[in-house]
Amino acid sequence: MKLTQPFLPLRKEQTFLPLEKGVVSAGFPSPAEDYLDTGIDLNEQLIRHPTSTFLLRISGDSMSNAGIHNGDLLIVDRSLEPKPGRIVVAILDGAFTLKRLVRYKNELRLEAENPQYPPIEFCYYDNIEIWGVATYSIHNINTGRQV
User: Which one from 62, 64, 79, 83 is the annotated catalytic residue?
Assistant: First the structure.
């Protein structure tokens, strides 16, 4: 999986979208509320550290089992600590990649969330940088087209 357009700018202004006061049941249907709450600002909900957060476009399917798909917009926070278990953007010998940081036999490595891709062992690379931690993936659930 490679990342394209690695530095999409974030807008600083607030954009409020209507927020339904109730919740939507993903199980059995529930009675619908007939009014909207005041609204929600997606920047406020999705971006904790605006000065260190970036949007990246995903290309490939190596993280599909983690819910990250080809064409998705990925929100990456560079201020978060890259701990094992987190999905990270790494730069390996100058190339961006998105994988899960994993501790395996007391060593760190990167693993895909698709069994078709082998783990990435750091010992095979000269220059390794964990560039940021993925926090959200945004994709179109109906058509699979880019957002």
Answer: 62
Beta bridge partners of 139: none
Look up residue 36 and give its DSSP letter.
Answer: B
Catalytic residue among 2, 79, 99, 137: 99
Nearest CA among 91, 117, 113 for reference residue 100: 113
DSSP code for 47:
-
What is the rounded CA–CA span in Å between residue 47 and residue 76?
Answer: 9
pLDDT band at 4 (very low <50, low <70, confident <90, very high): very low
Domain 2-10+50-138 has CATH 2.40.50.100: no
- Bridge-partner residues for 111, per DSSP? 100
Place of tokens 């069994």: 115
* pLDDT of 97 over the 50 cut: yes
At 38 the pLDDT is 66
* Residue 62 a catalytic site member: yes
Least confident interval from 12-21, 87-96, 129-138: 12-21
What single letter denotes the amino acid at residue 91?
I
